[in-house]
Amino acid sequence: MYKRILLKLSGESLMGQQQYGIDPVRLSQYAEQIKQIHDLGVQIGIVIGGGNIFRGIQGASKGFDRVKGDQMGMLATVINSLALSSALNTIGCKARVLTAIRMEPIAEFYSKQRAIDSLEAGEVVICSAGTGNPYFTTDTGSSLRAIEIEADIMMMGTRVDGIYSADPEKDPTATKYETISYSEILRMGLHIMDLTATTMCMENNMPIYVFDMDTPGNLLKVIQGESIGTLVTM
Predict the structure, then answer these.
(1) What are the chain's domains?
(2) What is the DSSP letter of 234?
(3) What is the mean pLDDT of each run of 10 residues along the chain (234 residues)?
(4) Which of 141, 157, 22 lies closest to 80 in space, CA to CA?
(5) Quick check: helix, strand or coil at residue 227?
(6) Closest CA to 49 of 161, 162, 225, 197
(7) Residue 158 backbone phi and psi in degrees, to 5
(8) Beta carbons within 8 Å of 148's beta carbon, 6+ residues apart
(9) Which is nearest to 124 in space by CA: 48, 50, 208, 35?
């Protein structure tokens, strides 16, 4: 079993059955899954996207200044992080939100040592606001935080049950990989996460596990060693 993980969650998945915002049912399901593995003693860092509220790159395509758009996207991740921390605290799982941009008293400013101290004190640590810089996605933010907190693995909770040769929602002939290398992802142009994030994980030998987080109980299955997704390694 892993001692410390970085869990990357999709902001879009938080919408659940809604078209926008945060679905309280999905939020509760995520919190329960996280608490399950926290109760086993796993130290959990989390990075969550903001696509259910605002995506900077989409804003830029609609006329927003790219830097301002990305900053709006960072704030969207803070909203999601606060919601998740509240859901966790409600069920008795202590969570702390750290931000890559100073915004006390909403949350504390991120540092590696503060994050690790909180993890070792038994808290779930939610790292928000990406890297604090424009032009970097939350994929890159999660890769960076996984490396910084010295996680054993970065787990990407998505709505798809792993990595496929093509988009399984569009191509019924797409085949699923149980394992795949970073270089194969880059060579085949598979859009699991952005190139910067993939390269960062490859250069720092940070394994990635892609799985379906939207099915309750799946996070526990992954922690217990069941092969339900795709493992990315060297």
Answers:
(1) 4-233 (3.40.1160.10)
(2) -
(3) 95 91 96 98 97 76 84 96 98 98 97 98 98 95 98 95 90 94 93 93 97 96 96 95
(4) 22
(5) coil
(6) 197
(7) -125, -170
(8) 112, 115
(9) 35
